[in-house]
């Protein structure tokens, strides 16, 4: 591999000094919120809590697991999942809607598809995929830091008022139930963990960068990846050629929020030089791969 290949061909295609795009392309709020739970390519959220059965919700309701699980596994719901047509809406229908509207999923308000689910203890967890016509709205909320939630929509004709261990009343729902769907809601869910970020108490969306980036968070990740490039016996010689330095002369490495790695080079204690390299790791990796 020679320098001519890097400078005459690939460098014209990929500008190493271009605006830092790595954080926007790879480290958005999505990853900070949920790690590998979110697949941006398919706009899918994996392993999201849908509901906790046999637990009193913040709405003071309890769904008995026997009846609820039977409703989840009804032939109707199973066929919808098998056909890939179990959809949910953006927010619940109006509280004063008719019974017919409650039991119907409005195709003009569909925002997501319920793909698959599993039961873990009394929790039901599953995957949802945002779809049109309304899926772009909650997906945009997620990208900007909103902690959206799922909320069950189910007809429960059998219920009675009971008291919990502390003597507080709640509605106990049991027996045959008719499950409609799980809607994507922007309001607070009945079960606090039924959100993308399950630990609601430790998450504050007002602290998010609403441009979809958290500089302080991405900074450490980008610095770490770039340092790995500088430590790589295979990549380092290419980096030294491109930027005209020798790692043995580097006395200090610093990182700035502007997205620059600064290499301080000293010569005999009298001469010093600072080389600033954009931490556009995505583009740098393209150059390194093209030069091999």
General description of the model:
- The strands form 4 sheets. Strands 1-2-6-5-4 form a 5-stranded antiparallel beta sheet. Strands 3-9-8 form a 3-stranded mixed beta sheet. It has a 3-stranded antiparallel beta sheet with strand order 11-12-13, with helices on one face.
- The protein folds into 2 domains: 3-23 and 214-290, no CATH class; 34-203, no CATH class.
- With 292 residues, the protein is of the alpha+beta class.
- It is 29% helix and 29% strand.
- The model is unreliable at 1-31 and 210-220 (pLDDT under 50).
- The chain contains 10 helices and 13 strands.
Layout of strands and helices, then pairs:
Elements: H1 3-13, H2 22-26, H3 29-34, E1 38-39, E2 44-52, E3 61-63, H4 65-72, H5 75-83, E4 87-89, H6 99-102, E5 110-120, E6 123-130, H7 136-143, E7 149-155, E8 159-163, E9 169-173, E10 178-185, H8 215-231, H9 236-243, E11 250-256, E12 260-267, E13 271-278, H10 281-290
Parallel strand pairs: 3-9
Antiparallel strand pairs: 1-2, 2-6, 4-5, 5-6, 7-10, 8-9, 11-12, 12-13
Summarize the structure.
With 292 residues, this protein is an alpha+beta fold. It has helices spanning 3-13, 22-26, 29-34, 65-72, 75-83, 99-102, 136-143, 215-231, 236-243, 281-290, and strands at 38-39, 44-52, 61-63, 87-89, 110-120, 123-130, 149-155, 159-163, 169-173, 178-185, 250-256, 260-267, 271-278.
Give the helices and strands as they follow along the chain: HHHEEEHHEHEEHEEEEHHEEEH
Number of domains in the coordinates?
2
- State the low-pLDDT regions, or none: 1-31, 210-220
Strand content: 25-35%
């Amino acid at each position: 591999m020679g320098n001519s290949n890097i400078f005459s061909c690939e460098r014209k295609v990929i500008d190493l000094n271009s605006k830092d795009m790595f954080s926007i392309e790879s480290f958005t709020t999505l990853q900070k919120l949920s790690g590998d739970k979110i697949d941006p390519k398919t706009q899918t959220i994996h392993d999201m809590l849908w509901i906790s059965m046999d637990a009193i919700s913040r709405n003071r309701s309890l769904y008995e697991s026997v009846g609820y699980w039977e409703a989840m596994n009804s032939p109707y719901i199973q066929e919808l999942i098998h056909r890939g047509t179990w959809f949910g809406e953006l927010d619940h229908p109006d509280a004063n809607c008719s019974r017919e509207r409650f039991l119907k999923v409005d195709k003009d308000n569909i925002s997501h598809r319920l793909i698959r689910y599993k039961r873990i203890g009394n929790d039901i967890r599953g995957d949802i995929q945002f779809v049109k016509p309304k899926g772009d709205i909650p997906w945009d909320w997620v990208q900007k830091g909103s902690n959206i939630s799922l909320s069950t929509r189910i007809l429960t004709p059998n219920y009675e008022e009971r008291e919990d261990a502390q003597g507080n009343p709640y509605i106990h729902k049991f027996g045959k139930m008719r499950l409609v769907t799980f809607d994507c809601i922007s309001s607070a869910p009945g079960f606090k963990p039924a959100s993308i970020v399950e630990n609601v108490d430790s998450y504050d969306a007002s602290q998010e960068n609403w441009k979809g980036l958290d500089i302080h968070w991405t900074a450490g990740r980008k610095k770490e990846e770039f340092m790995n490039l500088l430590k790589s016996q295979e990549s380092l010689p290419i980096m030294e050629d491109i930027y005209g330095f020798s790692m043995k002369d580097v006395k200090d490495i610093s990182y700035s929020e502007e997205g620059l790695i600064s290499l301080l080079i000293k010569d005999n204690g009298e001469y010093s030089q600072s080389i600033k390299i954009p931490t556009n790791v995505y583009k740098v990796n393209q150059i390194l791969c093209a030069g091999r």
